[in-house]
Please model this.
Amino acid sequence: MAEKKQVEQITSRDVDFAQWYTDIVKNADLVDYSSVKGCMIIRPYGYAIWENIQSIMDRRFKETGHQNVYMPMFIPESLLNKEKEHVEGFAPEVAWVTHGGSEPLTERLCVRPTSETLFCEHFAKIINSYRDLPVLYNQWCSVVRWEKTTRPFLRTREFLWQEGHTMHATAEDARNETLQMLNIYADVCEHDLAMPVVKGPKTPSDKFAGAEDTYAIEALMHDGKALQAGTSHYFGDGFAKAFDITYKSKDNVDVYPHQTSWGTTTRLIGAIIMTHGDDNGLVLPPAVAPIQVVIVPVAQHKEGVLDRAHALYNELKDAGIRVHIDDSDNSPGWKFAQYEMKGVPVRIELGPRDIEAGKCVIGTRHNLEKSDASLDGIVETVKEKLEEVRQGLYDIAIENRKKHTYDCTTLDEINKALEENGDGFVRAMWCGNEECEDGVKAATGVGSRCIPFDQEVLSDKCVCCGKPAKKLVYWGKAY
Amino acid sequence: MAEKKQVEQITSRDVDFAQWYTDIVKNADLVDYSSVKGCMIIRPYGYAIWENIQSIMDRRFKETGHQNVYMPMFIPESLLNKEKEHVEGFAPEVAWVTHGGSEPLTERLCVRPTSETLFCEHFAKIINSYRDLPVLYNQWCSVVRWEKTTRPFLRTREFLWQEGHTMHATAEDARNETLQMLNIYADVCEHDLAMPVVKGPKTPSDKFAGAEDTYAIEALMHDGKALQAGTSHYFGDGFAKAFDITYKSKDNVDVYPHQTSWGTTTRLIGAIIMTHGDDNGLVLPPAVAPIQVVIVPVAQHKEGVLDRAHALYNELKDAGIRVHIDDSDNSPGWKFAQYEMKGVPVRIELGPRDIEAGKCVIGTRHNLEKSDASLDGIVETVKEKLEEVRQGLYDIAIENRKKHTYDCTTLDEINKALEENGDGFVRAMWCGNEECEDGVKAATGVGSRCIPFDQEVLSDKCVCCGKPAKKLVYWGKAY
Model:
């Protein structure tokens, strides 16, 4: 299939993290650049990861009663302008369509940066009675935000995402939905992506344009920087009022419904890379790995090797495992490096002596360990190994986060912790004033990430102004 | 769940087909209009049909070795201009992005109307050796063509589709791929959508912009108009030359690879409506029906009815059948009308007397027949009924096509056949000249649809000019 190309040495993760990331994205065949500045081509291996994420998320959405829809990709300027805070947040970074064919448009259209306005226009038509609520919609699509600086998966002018948009009879229902979806995101990240996250509201200055409350899940990357991996917003009835969406209550009174939206994006692939990758390349959590197990026949020219390897392939495939066999004429050593670069969680080596002994060699990507395993009951062994990788990845990530989470009570402590131990999550108390949020950032370089649900009291004083503290906040440098 | 709204009477199919279509699209909750002119909102029930079509197609693509990717939605003007015929075909109908935020772009970008140019730019980078071939890619996305007149699903400014793009070492390989994908489309249409199609090349005047050959599947709608349901193109090496894509052969010679592309769209939903729908609403082929079976409890307030209905629901659901139970307080009659409008293939009614007798009433949507069925072995019965609906729909469609296919040897015969029997497929011989193609259309109103693979000789003379005929052609009025 593939030409025998050299598996290139990538930059060491600890030497230059940014270059290491770029090397992985390229060498694991995840992405290619195009002549469309700031946009990425997602190659088959990268897209297959996204399809697996989609499939897991979509199942969770449907299990909780959500339905998929598709809204137009364009938003007329007048529609975008309907909710004041929302348009102020997004107008500076949208792409404008001004011509259809050779004709100028009478009203310019923006390419959707997010679709609250389109959903609201539709909700106004389909919501009439309390019986119509809740409306629980989601869509999978691409959106465009005209970013100045871009990096594959992390920040691109076009990206793929899902955006959930829901309407509820009461504020309480909408708040529950907001948290339910945040919890689903956290659960998928922690379990399926083996990536620990901190959950909680953003500070008021960091809310989504038009939202009353924005909640986020924040993950710590291997380099100690924070990445926002998903957000869930509670809108109250602000958009409902702007778009004149009302429903008749049981008592026949016109009421504004309460709204949420929530989203995750292809950025999650960037998060996977930066949480689990190492100097040999990508390391993929089994739940989203396009190839969960690769079989590498050894001395495959010898009689019976390929036959037995293919029998093994079929056995694993029939068990629902995503398995690949590489019987190309590349050397086993080349293949090992290749599938390590691609982050395949489990590798099976099978040679003539193994076959004779009724065994194979099975290796796990996250710790590069290998051991013998009987070919009898190999399906169970593989499943155990996949779970071992998942748990192993999670443990490593938790360990890294522990090592790079610093409890601080003064700005000096923050600077000292960052200087001595490198970037990480800073946990410190906050009085609730935006000036102090800015003050922390100016003095130390870390910004507020979220106000964790799991509150503790590290001190009774704000880390910045020394006045009474209200909340424990996670601070960090952000992607 | 839903408010008790009247199931509205729709326009009769034979009175006003266009209005009937619009009524179904609206009353079956498939689509809503938005303030974005010419674009549609695909509602949950419509989108679920698309998801089912996607799932069937995607499995077929992957089984034949294709991989999904994602290309940017924008194409720089200079890139679109690279292949002359292609840009001439598409430039008049593209939407142009001219501004990012408040800044004018240095080069305007079109929103992709199709992605040959983007794929070719990428192919030039990833194809180097004969070992890299074939490259078999597909993407699911939305595309934009600035149409003047639009109708939901049939012709909209934005629509959802899949576009396959492949590169091959030889012309023969590429031609085989072109036909393989055409055959997969035909197979999905005939089997899963129960919609008979005619397969064959388009005439040269009707080829895709930049293609050497365009093949299509053509279906006859209930009103006798033809609908192009999918196309597959053979490009030769024209784009490869324009984009400087070459590979080293085994003999180390630089060779241009040969290319294909192929696509199907949300238009297929329009085809389903117009092939199978009737005066009671939509009729869905079971393979793509979001709800395959609806259970309507009768006298559900009586003891044991809802329990038994839910047990039946679980039994069918566990068997992998897409089943819905409507235990709302709407009347059974309202429910019957509602699920007929939505085209649910099989309906089960279950009341106290049925339960006592260990049976239910099972009805099929395509012929509105119903009969008793034992609750023992109901899963098998339902599966048989679903297959009965599929086969029944196909038979009705074939019958309609037979009735509205006219073999003609003169222009007068064409006009007479259309006048006496209504619109339909005209089968008539053609000399191969574009003037005669135009001549037939001018004299009779029917245009060439395709040159069927199944050739017959109806006459040795061209139906238009009377000179020696080369091919049997299907003619029709097109959507």
About this structure: The radius of gyration of chain A is 25 Å. Chain A has a mean pLDDT of 96.
